[in-house]
Protein 1
Amino acid sequence: MKTIVINIDEKSNAERILEAIKLLKGVKGASIATDEELENISILKACKAARRTKKVSKSEVLKALK
């Protein structure tokens, strides 16, 4: 399964695009994401980015907070 995310300002345009996407061959489902789903996507992207960064010890974090 592949996911496509499209950002659209106007709700009326989003609904028309959604209906057109549903007509495409191979599309099994299409919906407008809720705020909670968008938040989950953002958290997953942040976690993925964090995995690629250097690990920092607890003592280094506490030292930086002083």
Protein 2
Amino acid sequence: MKKTALCFGTIAVFLILPFRMNAQQEDVPEPVFLNFSIQPPYVPTYHGRDPFKPLNWVTSRPQISIAELKYFGIMDAGSGPMALFGWRTDSSQEYTLKNRKLYNDAGLPVDGVVGDITASQVILTQGDQKITYPRN
């Protein structure tokens, strides 16, 4: 009985113990994470239309005619006088004339419209069309 237990013990030491030694985890640095750099994803540059926006997408508001503007008055800001206008068909949209340019409520200049504020009147010009308002 002692011989068989000793025999099984010896077999266990020589057969099972080496497998347990190889099963231990070793900390080995992985080459993938050694030179890992954090960079933003690749953003391609392209010329022309943005392919991810639909064809009927409009970037700007529709152009207005100065005949559609309603004159409210003059406001004197620190940088000089400003004339205030509103759009007749949509009163929520406001326009400001300052430094000879007409700006919409988002602060973007309206293309093709030039204006002037004199001592007696406010003048808006768009192409051949010219409208004067009395300065109140």
Protein 3
Amino acid sequence: MKPRKNYRSRPKKSGATKRQRVLSQKRRLVAAGYEQKKLDKMTTVEVRDLLKEAGKKKALAYQQK
């Protein structure tokens, strides 16, 4: 008889999916008005922090309408 709960380990992240995710984040930042050259020199952590700030600015602008 099969157990009711299917316990499985958390899927491991691959390098290709990480690169795709960072690339899409950079595209969103370019659309938000950041320069591509500056983004190319940044680390992934810095890109994520910028994306958080851009999201907060967008949310504030949306609330003010």
Protein 4
Amino acid sequence: MRYLPIHIDLQRVDILIVGGGPMAEAKLRTLLATPARLFVIADTISQNIKSWAKAEKLVWESRAFKLSDLEGKQLVYAASGDGTLDNMVAELARQRGLLVNAADDKAGSNFFSPAIVDRSPVSVSIGTEGQSPGMARLIKSEIEALLPANLGKTTEYLGTIRKQLPKKRPQFSSRLSFWKTMFKGQNLASLCTFDQTGLVGKAEGHLNIDEVLPAQGRVALVGGGPGNADLLTRQAVRVLETADVIVYDRLISETVLALGRREAEYIYVGKKPNGPATLQESINAVLIKHAQAGQHVVRLKGGDPLIFGRADEELEALEKANIPFDIYPGITSASAAAASIGRSLTTRGVNTSLTLLSGHDAKGYAEHDWARLAQPKARAVIYMGLGASSSIRAQLLAHGAEPDTPMTIVENASLPTQKIVASSLGMLCTDIARGDITGPAILMLGYKPRSVKASPKPSTKIHEQNHEYQKTQGQGPASYNGQQLTQRKSRLSEPAFSLDQSSFQGFG
């Protein structure tokens, strides 16, 4: 992020706009909604700007720009449409350390005017770092449709309650608990149906009920998915945004961590294969300690915490300590890997069952029903199988599996660093070494990547049985159109935002 989005207080601020045509008018339409004092310098101005000047919404001087116009100004807009003039104004403003926006000139600007969704005092600004104002406007229209028209009034009512709250709830943790209770079970649409009296009544009700109750901490067990932040559930994102403490594993990506609240405490409890590892008992103790202190703790695990995530051990510890918990499942790596190779995990007429298995257990290499897994139509996805790949290969071959049984290795599924190696059981260990697969990786027994026809600009190449690997260029799940394999990054829209963190509620 090169440009930091900030909201500037424009009360008693003087802004200079050089220009009086369409470019200047477009800037003024936004600026007129602020309390700033606006000064327009231009020989001629549009009819709309004339009407605004006549209504004393701005000051217009019909003349050429001069250096002294910059004195006392905090923001400058060079918007005459004359490139030479705008460049000169922008350069002079920058020399004086002023913030300047030169219309249609990214290099000449040190700030940009975002597209704004105005529900004052709520404002949502959308910027593209000057790359595509059209895209910003498109995003604005989508957000406009989602936000209730009376959101601003509701926010003002809540602001009044917030000003009075410290007198009734001196402790910050108590105030935080109050707001969580106020918003629980609400979405924006339902919250904005309250008038001021209704909201005040709702707040008083919660204050009277909760005032004598001690702060109650809880733990949320959250699936961080395979690492691509776009694959997190909305529930996971919401709980990260409200966490006091985030306890996370080695496989949690930086982009997923970035969704957490900046003020939260981040505690790393990773376990590296054949390396340093945080003891499970220590992790349990961390969760209990912070929850007992009344904090909202997020236990963030890669993939789905309910699949090879030792979730039961942590939940049992919380249960013994009488700490309530929520569970927010995530997308497991098997699903992400299947999407990456364009294959369904189950196919009618081929396999009516799927085995998810771990290459390791507490005692070392895990033992499985190798005879069943060696059957021709058996399908399995193996987690934590790199280190055990030689043993897995030997066991399957010894129990009758064919050497040419398809095997696919997917490393860093769904991430930009993703690798896919199409192999066979007989060549598994060789292809892992030649593909420079170091993990984390998924081994897929009985699966091979969907074939891809050549295209002028292929975004993905999958090489089967030739010991080469592919690296994806995007960040989303693979998308297939029958001819070309591409990578798509997207979020599915939902009809409304929700403030409710409904989930499986441990202990009610």
